[in-house]
Specification:
- The chain has a single domain, classed as Rossmann fold (3-Layer(aba) Sandwich).
- A 7-stranded mixed β-sheet has the order 3-2-1-4-5-7-6, with helices on both faces.
- The chain is α/β, with parallel strands linked by helices and about 270 residues long.
């Protein structure tokens, strides 16, 4: 953990989760020369209606690597089976080792309350690993950390047991095109599987440019809806004039199970939020 060169680790359940929920923040980190690593704990093997097995796994690994390469980030897709992830000891130890090896200043992951069992499992795994990364006798083959990183939760829309708290709001309007380009690398998801799953396959254009513009409009609608949901928080932080003008933002909650986000940590980890 360095005061000058920051390290952002995003632990998602699936190969496209990091970009979809925190691609703007990742882009800002890389633009300032900081290290970004995006890890999918599952192999993505359940994320298609036609492809199966190793062919899909390899395709999703290539897509994740291509998306990360656009901003110069690291990418890794683990071998745990998509749709079958459990917050057990073996995976917890892998998460502890990952955090120790990368030595992040900031970790982002899913909340333990989410619609997808894999998302819930990853959130629980990171929560369970948060303190243990400082315990020398746990996974002793990797040196323990002297202190926890700050851990934040990726945005979601769920309200039970409670809604996401907007602890950090990052304006990402200037990063929208990069975000869409990253998502477009995940062709199997945003042009095939998710449209099938949502019953809108007929809406996806065939021509590449039109298809990319369709994705842009779809993701902009998603991001605009997220931003409007937290409009009152944005206005409270930025004031009415600027708060009303922000069209696209990413929102994160800080976990109470790891290092606190005090004023010093906030200024260091989010220097572009002012």
């Amino acid at each position: 953990m360095s005061d000058d060169n920051l390290r952002l680790l995003i632990l998602g359940a699936h190969p496209d989760d990091a970009e979809y929920h925190a691609g703007g923040l990742a882009t800002k980190y890389r633009r300032q020369g900081h290290a970004v690593r995006m890890v999918s704990l599952t192999d993505g093997s359940a994320g298609h209606h036609q492809m199966r097995g190793q062919d899909l796994i390899e395709r999703r690994r290539r897509e994740a690597a291509s998306a990360a390469a656009l901003i110069g980030a690291e990418s890794e897709v683990w071998n745990y089976r998509d749709g079958f992830l459990q917050p057990g000891i073996d995976v917890r130890l892998d998460v502890i080792r990952e955090i120790r090896r990368f030595q992040p200043d900031l970790v982002l992951t899913h909340r333990p309350c989410d619609y997808h069992p894999d998302h819930r499992a990853v959130g629980q795994l990171v929560q369970d690993a948060s303190y243990m990364v400082t315990v020398p006798s746990i996974a002793p083959e990797v040196p323990c950390l002297s202190r926890d990183p700050v851990v934040g939760y990726l945005p979601d829309r769920f309200t039970v047991p409670r809604p996401l708290r907007a602890d950090v709001i990052v304006e990402v309007g200037n990063d929208l095109e990069t975000l869409v380009n990253m998502l477009a690398c995940h062709e199997s998801q945003f042009f095939e599987w998710l449209p099938f799953n949502q019953g809108i396959t007929h809406e996806v254009p065939v021509e590449v440019t039109a298809r990319r513009e369709w994705l842009r409009e779809s993701f902009a609608h998603h991001l605009r809806s997220l931003t409007n949901r937290f409009r009152a928080d944005i206005i409270a932080y930025h004031g009415p004039q600027r708060g009303e003008a922000i069209e696209f933002a990413e929102v994160f909650e800080v976990s109470e199970y790891a290092a606190p986000l005090d004023d010093t940590a906030r200024a260091r980890l989010f220097p572009f939020v002012n």
